[in-house]
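Pilot study result, target chain (439 residues):
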Amino acid sequence: MMNIAIVGTGYVGLVTGACFAEMGVNVVCVDIDRKKIESLQKGVMPIYEPGIKELVDKNVNEGRLTFTDSLEKILPDVSIIFSAVGTPPDEDGSADLTYVLDVARSVGRCMTKYVLLVTKSTVPVGTASKVKRAIHEEQERRGVSIEFDVASNPEFLKEGAAIKDFMAPDRVVIGVESERAASMMERLYKPFVLNGFPIIFMDIASAELSKYAANAMLATRISFMNEIASLCEATGANVEMVRKGIGSDKRIGMSFLYAGAGYGGSCFPKDVKALAKTGKENNLKMRIVEAVEEVNEAQKEVVFHKLAKAFNGNMKGKTIAIWGLSFKPDTDDMREAPSLVVIERLIEAGAIVKAFDPVAMEEAKRRLGYKIKYCCNIYDAAKDSDAIALMTEWKQFRLPSWARLKDSMSGDVVVDGRNIYDKNELESEGFRYFAIGKN
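Predicted structure:
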């Protein structure tokens, strides 16, 4: 049985650890945050992700998953260490490698035998060289020379479907420099690829860049459709029809071609910025990537502009119900969420904001305090409101009682920031309906 360690118990680290444990691997999750470790040992999850608590509890109870705040103590017993710590963006858009290099130095200070250090975090091209250098420097301080390898194994998890993505991946990308490292990683991932999901081995630089390129491509599709949506509104076309017209082309496909209020989250915004920064560091202007970010930042304000237009530019004293706060359904993550931009603009314009989200209310309170009123459901938020703005397409928002809403609201405006409602249905109920790229 393999023994591995996962350093970092955030979103990626916890999902990675629980899924490896489910496949029979002995996993120790390590985090310097003692309170987080104590909470995990009590079964309290630091993240919201469907199925994660059940998976963690099961593997803890069966003895394959444990938690500690000391990497030094468990290093002698593991052969592979995954570094899944955060890489937050610096002010200039580059990824902050402080935590990644801290892990490398800890390994260099404490290792007593061969170990394979795998970077799971999203990191810029060239990070592996910095990790190797940090380990060598710590070994030199100790006066030892212990063999080790580094590898890159970027994650391609979607928040809200992370466990499924890990258990049944489209592909597993692994960057290595030695046959020994490749053999160890192939053995570790074998249970996941028995159904034919490929392991793609490559050089480390290509693996590091693959994650950024994948997210930038997906973000590009979103920003492209949002720009097309603006053109649709200017010309009288319907972006949903355009999507069908181009998405039926097998070379293009339907995925990530939805117009909306812009993308957010912990990955796309950060990775697009970091890719642009990497280009600058290599004397390349990433013109498409930079445009993707520019379009997205503007798109986050579209819902506010539609609300303002509905009220002839006067938002003062208007009560607006915000449906959805997280950047996407099935997560409480509000990092870079379009809802934050819309709420701030509404408050600046003198509007009163009421909001509801199925799981992100506590996160919203942490970020916004009591600038807005928090409601217990969509009907509570809509009561006495002048308008509804849909920001997150949670399933439970899809079929509300429009008749009930019309009776309880003060106004008649609905701005559909995710294009999930039927214009004819809402207009028949007496609403003024505004969508993205369809009016």
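One observation from the pilot: The domain at 300-434 is CATH 3.40.50.720 (Rossmann fold). A full batch analysis is planned for the follow-on phase.
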